[in-house]
Amino acid sequence: MNKIICGFKEFLKIFSSLKNITLLLVSAGLFWLLLVVLPNASVVGAALTGPGNSVANFLDVIIYLFTGFLPFSQVSTVLISVLFGLNLVLFINLRKRNKKLTGKTATTATGGFLFSLLGAGCGACGVLAVSFLSFFGMGSLVATLPFGGAEFDIAGMILLAGSLILILNALIENNCKISHGK
Predict the structure, then answer these.
(1) Do the beta carbons of residue 73 and residue 153 sit within 8 Å?
(2) pTM for the complete prediction?
(3) Are the C-beta atoms of residues 129 and 119 closer than 8 Å to each other?
(4) % of the chain at pLDDT higher than 70
(5) N or C, where is the chain less crowded by C-beta within 10 Å?
(6) Quick one: residue 68, left, alpha or beta (phi over 0 = left, psi -120 to 50 = alpha)?
(7) What's the number of CA atoms in the CB half-sphere (13 Å) around residue 150?
(8) Measured CA distances, 57 to 48, 49, 69, 154 (Å)
(9) Which tens digits make up the pLDDT trace of 55-68?
(10) Domains of the chain: which residue ranges?
């Protein structure tokens, strides 16, 4: 229990800085934009080069694309983006303290990032899952999954959350004194 409190205090200490909050918002926003725009690059490109105000066209297309996601996909895309931003800020703080990621933490962080990219968005338009599988003629495979591709989102969220915990654990490793009843 003491380790949880210590980790929570460290989390609050890191995010009491306006610089870290700004980095979180910018990185989460850019990652969200990547998840929404990349699978629909041709539509976004047409909006940018079409007639009228390019910025207004871009914003309209992004809003329409995102509202076209299923409700679960909307929530998971936002959660994955926020978890990615949190991981990035904590990772940067870890590196500033000259600490290295252990194998387990690095694997979890990388796995969370990859699974997030694989299926974030909707099952039919995940950034990499369908694009990659369609090269092999297996694009419809995602639709046959029990949750229609949401498995990638769920795995990504679990791995990113686990990565957060492991990075926080590495941050508080020497700072948190836990007595073991001795």
Answers:
(1) yes
(2) 0.79
(3) yes
(4) 74
(5) C
(6) alpha
(7) 11
(8) 6, 9, 19, 32
(9) 888 888 888 888 87
(10) 2-36+70-172
